[in-house]
Amino acid sequence: MSSLKKTKHVSRIGTKSSKKEDDFVKKWQAALMMLIIFIGGYLAGIYFSKEEVTREIRVGYQDRGRDDVIHFKNIIKNTENQSAVDNIMMIFMKKEKIADPDVNLEKPDIYLEVLNPKHFTGLIDSRIWFKDEGAVIAERSGESWEDVVYYSIHEQDADYLKQIAG
Questions:
Q1: Which one of 5, 40, 79, 131 counts the least CB within 10 Å of its CB?
Q2: HSE on the CB side for 93, CA within 13 Å?
Q3: Would you state the pLDDT for residue 23?
Q4: Contact 112, 89 (CB under 8 A)
Q5: CA proximity to 114, closest of 123, 104, 105
Q6: Is the CB of residue 112 less than 8 Å from the CB of residue 58?
Q7: Do residues 54 and 118 lie in contact, with contact meaning Cβ atoms separated by under 8 Å?
């Protein structure tokens, strides 16, 4: 007979089993595309919407050995503790101006600075002395500590600053 064998070619196009397989593959492709789009959007959202620090409060203490060294041990950022930043800003808004208090400008209890790191700006540069009836705040009003304005705050506000200072 013939050495050529006829092979029967079976086409799966149009059969029920191939249609099920095609539908299954299409569903997986659609699910994979949706997953890729979701993950891409999520990562883009994280990357592009980072909250920036606009207020930073630094609370520091003078070094015991060197008067010219200040250690800022507590730094509060508005992205981490907005209520503390708001409370401190309100305390500084309510302070009352006073005449020459009995304090040593070179030896405060704490140093407190309010900065805007986004714009590289110092907003408040102050020194604070705690008293029995509240606290005295010296705020630098010029380029150096030669121009100082003194303020007082109430005992409740002073207690809050002590708590923040640690």
A1: 5
A2: 6
A3: 84
A4: no
A5: 123
A6: yes
A7: yes
Dihedral sign for Cα atoms in the order 75, 106, 102, 143: negative
Domain coordinates in residue numbering, the chain: 1-50, 56-165
Residue type, 94: K
What is the spatial distance between Cα 93 and Cα 33, in angstroms, rounded to a whole number?
54
CB proximity list for 158: less than 8 A, separation 6 or greater: 130, 131, 134, 135
Q: Is the pTM of this model over 0.70?
A: no
51-87 confidence digits (pLDDT tens): 788 899 999 998 888 878 888 889 999 889 999 999 9
Cα separation of 76 and 79, whole Å? 9
Helices 82-94 and 155-165: angle between axes, nearest 10 degrees: 140
18-36, pLDDT tens digit by residue?
777 888 888 889 999 999 9
Any residues with CB less than 8 A from the CB of 98 and at least 6 apart, and which? 136, 150, 151, 152
